[in-house]
Protein 1
Amino acid sequence: MTEVEIDIEDLVRQGVLTRDEARALEHAQQSETGGAARMEALPETAGLRDGGSDDGEDKDAVKEAAVKHKRHWVRVTRVCNQRCTFCLDSMNQDGSMIDTNSLKAYIALGRRLGRERLILSGGEASVHPDYLELIRYGKEVGYEWIQTVTNGMMFSYKKFARKAAEAGLDEATVSLHGHTAYLQDKLTGTPGAFVTGVKGMKNLQDTGRVVVNVDVVINKQNYKHLPEILEYYYNMGIREFDLLHIIPFGRGFDEHRHSLFFDLNDAVPYFRRAWVWANKPGVYLWTNRLPVQYLEDFEKLIQDPHKLFYEFDGGRHNFEGYLKRGLEPDCWGERCDYCFLDGACRSTMFPYREALIGSRFQHVRLDTRHAFVSPDAERVFRAQRPERVWLEGPDVDAIAGALPQLGHDSAPVAVRLDDGADWSQANWAEDGPLGRVDRVVVRTVEDAAAVLVGKQRLPEHLTVEVRLDKALAAWLLARPSTIKAWQGRLVGCLPNHQFLSESQEHDPPPATLRRLADAGVRLKNVPRCVAGGDVEPHDHELLDANLLDRGGDLDLDRYVHHYIEHEYYAKSLRCYRCALQDNCRGSQVNYLREHGFRMLRPLDQSGQELPDAGSFEDITEVLKEATAKRGRRERDQIIGKHRPDARVRVAIDATRLGKSPGDQPDA
Ligand code: SF4
Ligand code: SF4
């Protein structure tokens, strides 16, 4: 039994939860950061009941609120009345209904975990004999909002749709992958799917109570029709669309790969005509699992990075098996080339584990206030041989006290104290307690003033790293003489944020960064093409002590958080023409979502902007040709899909896991 009194094993036996879902639930109960409770990311439609408002509509804010909304997904059946070619759930379907009492127990558990929105899914949830009772029960135990995901067929019975609304159904997400019977019936493997699905959708709309939206799995059969699909359902009153890119799992990859998977470069003209629907007042588009480079000029449609938690929860046994025991994920191999998770999984998580077990992390970070979770975690952390240590603490005494036990003796130390801490008593002598410190980090105007120009001005051998926000950038720009006095020892670091709203609120825009660089501030974590000159790279490959679990392995949930904030970077497809392509990671995803790929401007060997770098569309034409002539792998190498160092490490990893590097998709 875990904190909430419920027998998770019994829920697994009853078929309510898969093993992975059970593990995710256990994590959710054990930790603030674990499992589905801390990250819920399907569309928030409560505010769209009236079709949205054209006045002052802040779609970013609505979407982010949705991401933070706490949802409780409940699989109601292991059966479906359609046979979609891309079904991700087919391996979980055995034709059975799940026991109503077990479902109620799990629904009630969600409320006890503080979840606000109940989502009934399947298989096909609506075929469960007690479906209406489950909706009523959801209301009874206090869910604010009850949503169902459905193919719509059952709701083609008007009475059923009305009864569902009366029971308390607030929202229905209807899966409609085409705007014609030919497309929908073919993709769902079900004659009549289109007619009944659309009828069900209309019946639900007619209740006047249920918010109805549409989800579309984008695949080879329908991508050319995407603009028409949106138009068709828009004309039927739909204002919210969830567009899911096909992924290499389930039946779609195993049985229908050649008829479902497609080259994204072929789809660009159709996609761009589809994405403009997002600009219509009251229309909400969500993209799912779509490689971010293909959203150039429509960056606000980049999926919220926190949706990664769902993806990792869904394969928890795989990822934890790899992180804790080095076991090859069972999806690993040719699927990786098609996988949206590649960046977070193969290209970063694998190298992270390699670095951990090889004691090769380049950066380590420790907060003096937090004890290691176990002796094993401490041993693994101290075994690293980093190039730099980042040490945080409340005050100088805490840092001075921690340094002698720190280990990593040859690495220089950067120190960050709490905002407003007193630096004046620090003894910076080389043989003193802070002798290893060569850099201090400040985050407020007050602290920057204190260490750069005030009474606590730091000695000359120290570099000051200023974590830039709008106020600090303005403060620095107003003080050219201070910048000059600190030339070579002043670094302006653009911090990363978990959420788009944080980036919007705090980050200086690209033009301000360029002005800072022009004024003499050495920028960090800013692409060189934005800074207009030399930059300091971000501290990639950083082992924060709190990433480690009791066994001294990387904790999956903490890793995903860390990945989003620290390693989720992207570049434009146009970057392939840049002389720095191989050594540049681009920009953190939330800064990109706010400022767009167009801020990135490919450079030549001398660091000058290329006058003929071409447009996004030009590049996709080049990539199409490359794919046609030389294959997908070659194309991926052109755009640097996998970091070169990651490729080498993955090959190493495969050897250790008993595969030959020749088996590697990228080797
Ligand atoms: S990238 Fe990771 S999640 Fe995706 S197929 Fe490969 S091993 Fe599986
Ligand atoms: S690779 Fe892209 S992001 Fe990096 S400097 Fe070149 S254009 Fe800018």
Protein 2
Amino acid sequence: MWEKAANPGASMTSLSPHLPGFAPQVSAFCTELAGFREFGSATVCGEFGGVPVFENEFWTAKQREGHSLQEVSYRACFKPSLPGFFIKRFTKPGDAVYDPFMGRGTTLIEAALLGRRPVGNDANPLCIVLTAPRLAPPAQDEIEKRVREIPLDAAADAPDDLHVFYHPDTLREIAALRAWFIARRESGAFDAVDAWIQMVATNRLTGHSVGYFSVYTLPPNQATSVVAQRKINAKRDQTPPRRDVRAIILKKSRNLLKDPMPDTPMLPGSLYTGSAASTPGIAGSSVALIVTSPPFLDIVQYKTDNWLRAWFCGIALDGVDVWEFRKLPDWSAAMRGAFAEFLRVLRPGGLMAFEVGEVRKGTVRLEEEVVRIGHAAGFTPECVLINTQDFTKTSNCWGITNNERGTNSNRIVVLRKPE
Ligand SMILES: C[S@@+](CC[C@H](N)C(=O)[O-])C[C@H]1O[C@@H](n2cnc3c(N)ncnc32)[C@H](O)[C@@H]1O
């Protein structure tokens, strides 16, 4: 159906038997992708099961990362340009855009900045802490006033082990800040300004520069264990330096708020904590577009990586059912359940962009599994879009050391709910 010779020699998905009962259709979107040349290279076209596959640089690493509000780290987050690409093409202002595995809320923030109505869900309660405050950001002067009011010298408990990350005075301030949020919640006084400060402080807990509360450690989206940090300290011959908790929070707040906000106020978000496979709070046929990225196979341990953030926010992750599958059949079974729910919440004709990244050095093609699962669930597979990028400095959210060179790809299956 598509010209495979756009880039002779390039290896693409081989021809495979058509999905049962699948009748390929040429959509305007596919035509656009096939002829896409915005960043210089031509699209490589292939197909899988009769579904067209397009590979190119559809959004570029050379573009800036996105709005400053997006600059919050989280494991395996995608870049704002990914949801932006689909939101701009497939929705109008006021439409609901949903991410059932929202993470740090990249899709929701992008949707809100573009005047769409953000809807999000994640099994990890931390995701609401990270996302909600940025959908209703307070003014910098309100943040400054509150940060100065919080009694950081108040006595509060903290596990002794945490001295492996923090200078004793810094840890005292972190513990006082944590106790402030807990007390404000208990008294019903916790407000949008507290929520903002909690989100920023959560992000500043650990990292590898002076902009974080901790001594040098792993990138900020990934807290290492106390035992491993002891080894890092010994190897680097380091002891945690004193950090100015207030100054770090204020600086990061200024950075997050530095880009202009949209002219029209952002629409309020609807955010849920729970399984993507069961979202009774979201009305049937209410969503125009889903842009999402599920947990991949055995790549990220969301609970382990977030243990320190969860402690700081008073969240118990033990009983939280975060999907961490090692075997493809288990992953597929979970996704089948979730896809039935996605079909329910999407409006007829609505689209889902489902991103699966590269798994086990490309030996497992999750995107092909997603095509099969989507088709069996009742979606019409429209295409697979593979965005390839060279990079010199990776964002921390991919968990790769800064200043390395390499490539990565986003593998996105585009599925439509039939009219
Ligand atoms: C790849 S990350 C999503 C990152 C997101 N796209 C972003 O930019 O931050 C996958 C997310 O799925 C969440 N998750 C895992 N199991 C889940 C489940 N059963 N239901 C909903 N969310 C789940 C994890 O907590 C994690 O935040």
